[in-house]
Amino acid sequence: MKINTVDTELSVSPQIAATDIAQIARAGFKTIVCNRPDGEGNDQPLFHEIEETAKKAGLECHYLPVESGKVLDEDAEAFGKLLDSAPKPVFAYCRTGTRSITLWSLSRAGKVELPEILTKAKKAGYDMSGVVRRVANKGKTPSNAVDGKFDVVIVGAGAAGVSVASSILSRAPDIDVAIVDPADIHYYQPGWTLVGGGVFQADETVRTLSSVLPSNVHWIKSAVAAFEPEKNTVLLEGCRVIEYGRLVVCPGLKLDWHKIDGLDDTLGKNGVTSNYRFDLAPYTWKLVSGMREGTALFTQPPMPIKCAGAPQKAMYLSADHWHRQGVLKNIDIGFYNAGGALFGVKEYVPALMEYVEKYNANLMFSHNLTAIDGPAKKAWFTKTDGDGNTETIEKSFDMIHVCPPQCAPDFIRVSPLADQAGWVDVDQNTLRHKTYENIWSLGDVMNAPNAKTAAAARMQAPIVAQNILTDMGRGPGVAHYDGYGSCPLTVERGKIVLAEFGYGGKLLPSFPTWLINGKRPSRLAWLLKEKILPPVYWEGMLRGREWLVKPKVAKPEIVN
What we know:
The chain is of the alpha/beta class. Strand 1 and strand 2 (10-13) form a beta hairpin.
């Protein structure tokens, strides 16, 4: 007998025998529910045999039979009422457990978020994609009506989504493109580091979403609930169905603040801040500009994260300010990195280390922030040694800049589009999905081994646009992405180490070394970051103007 745990209230199982009841009772279950009709199989025990043994063991036992492949709405409603009223935990079974988990999924619809239902079912070993529309429709069978049909549907209206929409429409204005996003506003996230460093004002990094969308795109202001790639449909909240010819998936990633115990309750106060949130970046500058002495901690979680240099950028700009104010000697700086290196591309590390030494910052590798107590001004880190042994380290602080753990959005992780780690599974060269040929992905959500930066999305957007149009018979050929990403490391106010690299850490500089040597701090690179890149973003990238990033048709490999 295999017990598949769904949550604290329910577990499901394939067919059981009366001899399994003792084990079920020992496991702590209080109620058994049979969802398999008597007589369905020659080798199955009748329900009364199970019931008699269960009652002798002190367990409640209920018979709620459902015909295989025919879970009705009223069946799910009856199961939900039983689950709510029965002594818990409940053990439900059928031939394989699928009917039981389906009944649970439908009965929880409207009470539990769809991604959570799909996640719990998946962890228990069951795929609920076949009933996802019913779950999205609060457990009721929906109509098969389609609410909209488009040549291209783009999920996500961040940097990647708006840019790829503009790149498609700049090439083919007659293409019917829809972009799906519930947000009202659009952020220039690369600017938040400079907000936290007192260089930009927060309002310089935000505009209304309607003002940056292409005029000829259909904006569907809704959240995505699920994908049905076999049907070429996207399911929106409220069980609205959108059909596509081609799909582009780029909703960004999820900042998982809750993974650090106590963090969510203290963000924005008690000296706890993060440049990874628009509303918190000004608080970073308030803390930095007001600090004269004490301990300042800067954290970096395990990879992958967006803009892997951002956690140390915050440290450098803060330390530079304290240096200029003459108070650096009074401040103990610690950089607590869950990883084992300062930066993933070794060629840039020497220049960064010069600043680490200049600011007398303590580098603490293999230290992952796990808990924080804002009022007590204490943080706890899990330290891991080379043999995998761990210990908990407590550290007091006056200010702490936190980079949160990050993962794919919930609706992506439980979808058929995701790999084992939860990211959209693409070919790293074409950015086309490995399974579904009419789906592409770009930006932070996909699993190509590149840096998750706005510069990467800027390079990817025209490549995806060209490849989609080529697939439609309207493009010059397939373009390949080389993994390009850029991380302007703001080592001091007025100087940047401009890291540019592709797959495998290959250096991919955009400028000759006599102009900008990316391995050394540069004033020209700072000018690029502060003055040039923001208008390039707003007026170039988001408008489909592919300055310096026009894709080229990939040359086929010659096989000897």
